[in-house]
């Protein structure tokens, strides 16, 4: 076998007019070997088999079998060829399948990577793309568990995008995030594009749900559902999601609050995202400039009246935390779980005890005006304050706490109880001594003494 270097030298010398015998003497090889490499019958670095390939008789069967079922497991096919007489090992068998490319590619299951991608036109004001992204390991102080939920909306033409951190991906939270992002983007496009999320459509059919149809009518938009397994159809929002995860979430400090994190994201979108340059017909313009020229419809004055419901734990001070503020409840609910309900567009929130049966109407125990998110204010009802102070005074005491290092001998009551206990024990011992005890060993000793000769 010739090395690649020898093969290069052999071809070069042959073009210079050297004979095969001269090249063979120069390289120290056999003439038949040089002739085979020059003719292209052999390749450098590839050793010719000296024995028959044991897999060769089964190539046609494997090719036809995998053409019938491209997803057939290699282990199943290996069992079949072993019954037909194959004696090789399973690793050798799978290597032969790979090197010979016997398994055909299934176009229906083939990923989009490597396929040609069509250019999708996005006219100005035509489409807004929406998507959720789960961001792992939120700060523990948020109390959100393993993941935070970020809703991202982007104008497909200009690339301008905004995001909202939300506690859940339920439909009410989705509507609240859509309303906030739409107002931040500056208007409503003619169409909203979603993937097959269950809060918007029925995933198997792609038909819009009745509840979200009312939302679309409120904002006056068309709803476009992506075809299944068409990830490139909403690639604009996918890129925005990638940017949000890598440039915002990756560097977020642990001590930041939810409201501060949202403010950081809004600031980044304005300072970094909107200043990106885009190629336009007139040259290059910033994203903010292109977005300002999009013909967007005005946002409705009031958001869709969906009700956002979250669960909260009441503090020892009978306060409930919501959106960076604190709201009071009756003191008997301290350290219990309650539900906070907020109707979008309303100026108040309702608090009700949690744990009610499904279908039963929750009894609202507190209603407060909504404070600005993240203001850090404490909204308390006068009646709740009075009741809390009363309960706190009942629990208060003027007694001096006990000291740990003092001498406290047994008192008269304890001494009397101890004397009674001693009397009871003495009586029980006497009764046990006066009882007749039959011990056969004593009889045996007496009998042994009588039988002994003196």
TrEMBL record:
PROSITE patterns: INTEGRASE. GO terms for biological process: DNA integration. Residues 119-294 form the Integrase catalytic domain. NCBIfam families: transpos_IS21. Belongs to the transposase IS21/IS408/IS1162 family. PANTHER family: INTEGRASE PROTEIN, TRANSPOSASE RV3428C-RELATED. This is IS21 family transposase. It comes from Georgenia ruanii.
